[in-house]
Amino acid sequence: MEIRELGWFTLLAEREHVTEAAEHLNVAQSTLSRAVARLERRLGVPLFDRAHNRLRLNEYGEILRAHALRALSEISAAEQRIAALADPGRGTLSVGFLHSFGGWLLPGLLAGYRAESPGVAFRLSGGAADTVVDGVRAGSLDVAFTSPRPAGDDLLWTELGDERLGLLVPEAHPLAERESVAVEELAQEQFVALERLYGLRQVADRLCAAAGVLPRVVMEATELVTVRSLVAAGLGVAIVPAPRPGDAVLPGVRDVAIADRGASRAVGMIVAAHGTPTPAARRFREFVRARHTEPPS
Q1: Around Cβ 291, how many Cβ atoms within 10 Å?
Q2: What is the mean pLDDT of residues 148-167?
Q3: Which of 53-62, 179-188, 213-222 has the lowest mean pLDDT?
Q4: What is d(CA 242, CA 256) in angstroms, rounded to the nearest whole number?
Q5: How far is residue 279's CA from residue 93's CA, in Å, rounded to a whole number?
Q6: E strand or H helix at 248, and its extent?
Q7: How confident is the model at residue 91 (pLDDT cuts 50, 70, 90)?
Q8: What pLDDT shows up at residue 123?
Q9: Mean pLDDT, to the nearest integer, of 6-27?
């Protein structure tokens, strides 16, 4: 099978009309029809049901289309990786990150790097800590930004700094007017938290354990925006990243500082310890390391 003909087939399957598909592809109708006939002869089955000058994929055609789309996607990905390998100023980099980093860490890094290498595109994948770590290990991500530091010697970790954690409480909560609170004071509170596979939940659980507190988690969520909304509804308190300058003030909640010394999480970049990264991936990693290790001006 020719890659070009598979692409023609998928377009014809979408348009369901030889004339329209041929015009879009800028080929003769007879050329397109012969290409489909070759596919059908190779497979030994018809791929379309023909009625009233239109085509409909049959069950054989549906199977071929599903596999053809995956094959074409893989070829496209290979072309992008080869382009990145040949020229570090081009190609596509796969970057994973925690959802909570999407509002402050990623935008500055990507904007800075794009200013230096405008030909590089990014495929971004936000998720839980376990998800992005697994992506780097599997090779589907070139680099990821996560917290806490993952275990194992198959990953290289570059620490980029610490992010302070704070306590989010409903505005009518007795702690809402406090400037700070110790974690040990939260033993009787009900908590809203992310699910256990999220890095922030893992850090928060360790913080509570260090203070001798077993948090009573009454609700679990998969996004911080949901956690904050549940706290605003009075359903519990939550350990979340402390607000940053310029962050919007959320209605219905108050941020209270946590006095414990360990109330922070290390933010870092991970890459695979083994294998050969593309020049584009290597250049991006070096850019991130340099940006976060430069002495203050």
Answers
A1: 13
A2: 94
A3: 53-62
A4: 8
A5: 10
A6: none
A7: confident
A8: 92
A9: 88
Q: Which residue has the tokens 């077993």?
A: 214
d(CA 227, CA 166): 13
| Structure-token pair, residue 106 | 């990623």
Q: Extract the tokens encoding 202.
A: 């893992």
Alpha-carbon distance of 121 to 214, in angstroms, equals 44
| C-alpha span between 281 and 283 (Å, rounded) | 5
- Both tokens of 143, joined, read 């680099």
Calpha distance 147→128 (Å, rounded): 10
Burial state string for 165-181 with b = 16 or more CB within 10 A and e = fewer than 16: bbbbbbeebebeeeeeb
Residue 112 CA to residue 125 CA, distance in Å, equals 19
295: cis peptide before it, omega within 30°?
no
d(CA 278, CA 276): 7
The three state secondary structure string of 99-122 is HHHCCCHHHHHHHHHHHHCCCCEE
Q: Cα angle vertex 74, ends 3, 48, to 5°?
A: 50
CA distance 63 to 68: 9
User: Tokens representing 235?
Assistant: 């359903």
Q: Are 273 and 228 in contact (CB under 8 A)?
A: no
Q: pLDDT tens-digit profile of 30-73?
A: 998 999 999 999 999 999 998 777 888 999 999 999 999 999 98
Per DSSP, 184 falls in state: G
User: Largest Cα–Cα distance in the chain?
Assistant: 78
Supply angle C-alpha 74, 116, 139, rounded to 5. 30
Question: What are the start-end ranges of the E strands in the chain?
Answer: 48-51, 54-57, 92-98, 121-127, 143-146, 155-170, 180-181, 190-194, 216-221, 238-241, 253-258, 264-272
In this structure, what token pair is assigned to residue 122? 């990014």
- Alpha-carbon torsion (288, 290, 295, 296), positive or negative: negative
